Amino acid sequence: MGSRATAPLLLFLGLLFIFVKISEKRATLPGPSFCLGIGPLISYGRFLWMGIGSASNYYNEKYGEIVRVWIHGEETLILSRSSAVNHVMKKGHYISRFGNKRALQCIGMNENGIIFNNNPSIWKQTRPYFAKALTGPGLRRTLAVSVESTRNHLEKLLGGHNTTSTCVDILLFLRAITLDISNRLFLRVPLHEGEIVSKIQKYFDTWQTLLLKPDIFFKFKWIYKKHEKAAQDLQDVVEELLLKKQQELQEAEKLHDITDFATDLIFAQTHGKLTADNVRQCVLEILIAGPDTMSVSIFFMLMLIAQHPEVEKKIVEEIQAVTGEREVQNSDLQQLKTVESFINESMRYQPVVDFTMRKALKDDVIDGYPVKKGTNIILNLGRMHKVEFFLKPNEFNLENFAQNVPHRYFQPFGCGPRSCVGKYIAMVMMKGILVTMLKRYRVHSHNGSTLENIKNNNDLSYHPNESHSRLRMIFTPRNQAAA
Ligand code: HEM
Ligand SMILES: *[C@@H]1O[C@H](CO)[C@@H](O)[C@H](O)[C@H]1NC(C)=O
Ligand SMILES: *[C@@H]1O[C@H](CO)[C@@H](O)[C@H](O)[C@H]1NC(C)=O
Ligand SMILES: *[C@@H]1O[C@H](CO)[C@@H](O)[C@H](O)[C@H]1NC(C)=O
Ligand SMILES: *[C@@H]1O[C@H](CO)[C@@H](O)[C@H](O)[C@H]1NC(C)=O
């Protein structure tokens, strides 16, 4: 009796086992076919031609939320499903990025600094200096510094015209503010804002242009000479600033009561813990992080405010209710819930940092798909925020953050060991800058431009193409607007 029942059961289990084994093997990754090497050629070409962000969106749209393509002949996964994205962000063996080594050498990032440092042991030495500067006492000073810097810049630009509307070269303006805030927090040396802002722009363009280029590109020195110079120019400026800082430190009778990022690095260098090249690169990177990401993010936010008067009204009412006539301070941040939802929804709907690049340092299985050591990985965060969880994914709507959003579905800064080390400070800076501006001015777009009709590029990050024309916005004093 017993054996008659077990035989079919064993047979069934055996078949199930075989079936599971087969379907495990069948879990080949979706994506374009290899096709005698033409597949890899086409997909690499697409990345070079369309830009990284656009190409990633193209492939996810065509093949689904997990895709395998090739960049420079290397297998590359593009992930926009939250389970896969969170898996990669949390595991410890995806803490490297990828990019052409010659390109990274050209911009000083190869095995130096933090952002594209692909040597895990050197990266582990530098990251703590960033983490220290971007949390704790540094974080607590950030709001006051952001408010003061924004106020000064507004006064310098608009002080004389506080009765009428003024047209502002908005990206230049926001870059100057974010650079000034970073300098006051991390370096504290007088600098020429306009000059450095323009050099940061050129440095970023070089980074974006070179990052995925084939090796052969670097054989033609005359082609990339201008890029090499752009990168060198910014490195030279930072070198000079660091020399000034060193002199100041030597002349100071005793150490200032507050230390800063640059001081900590200079000491690390004198104690032989970091090389001079690494110190210079770290300072360069902390100075460019704000102007590269925050300025465009805030520009998008101001455009969204200009296009959504009902949202503007809610935000301004909250700011008024919480801060009244005085400036915003740390104890207010908890209460500025609408401002925070607005910032979140802006970063979701119109992100600047659209994706992040990682590398698998070990074999692994992601959502059932085998992934070999050395595979490049693109986490397509911008798309993830539009295909999962949110009620009105393709609309700018504060309702998307009306209920609590579980962490895994909203990751504008990433999470885990290689996440944005500036994620807390970035939120505080954005709040400080936005609140200080919106308290005083109404913003309008200029010449009918909207987020939908300005030309954008989506390569290394999503940002307006500024070669068409300078972007402007109109600032009108609030007291005047109300009158
Ligand atoms: C709106 C503003 C910002 C956004 C949306 C943003 C987003 C991101 C993202 C998505 C990453 C990659 C994370 C990953 O691979 O998982 C990143 C990395 C990084 N961010 Fe931010 N960021 C912002 C502002 C800042 C600021 C203000 C700083 C510093 C002052 C900063 C410093 C960094 C650094 C140093 C890294 C590289 C970390 C590493 O490789 O270990 N970011 N950021
Ligand atoms: C304009 O600004 C100046 C200085 O910033 C101030 O003294 C003056 O009262 C302001 N005028 C108006 C109408 O707000
Ligand atoms: C905004 O997003 C962050 C995650 O980046 C989250 O911790 C926070 O709760 C969100 N705020 C609101 C008001 O939804
Ligand atoms: C405003 O837009 C029109 C048409 O789109 C364009 O011809 C003109 O140059 C723009 N003016 C400015 C100042 O950008
Ligand atoms: C920006 O637009 C110009 C003119 O349409 C184009 O030539 C240029 O390649 C664009 N810039 C980038 C980085 O795509």
From TrEMBL:
Cofactor(s), by name: heme
GO molecular function: aromatase activity; heme binding; iron ion binding
Coiled coil segments of this chain: 224-258
UniProt subcellular location: Membrane
GO terms under cellular component: endoplasmic reticulum; membrane
Signal sequence coordinates: 1-27
The keyword Lipid metabolism belongs to this UniProt entry's keyword annotation: no
Principal subcellular localization: membrane
GO annotation (BP), single: female gonad development
Positions bound to heme: 420
InterPro entries reported for this sequence: Cyt_P450, Cyt_P450_CS, Cyt_P450_E_grp-I, Cyt_P450_sf, Cytochrome_P450_Monoox
EC number: 1.14.14.14
Key words, A-Z: Coiled coil, Heme, Iron, Membrane, Metal-binding, Monooxygenase, Oxidoreductase, Signal
Family: Belongs to the cytochrome P450 family.
Protein name, per record: aromatase
Organism this protein belongs to: Scyliorhinus torazame (Cloudy catshark)
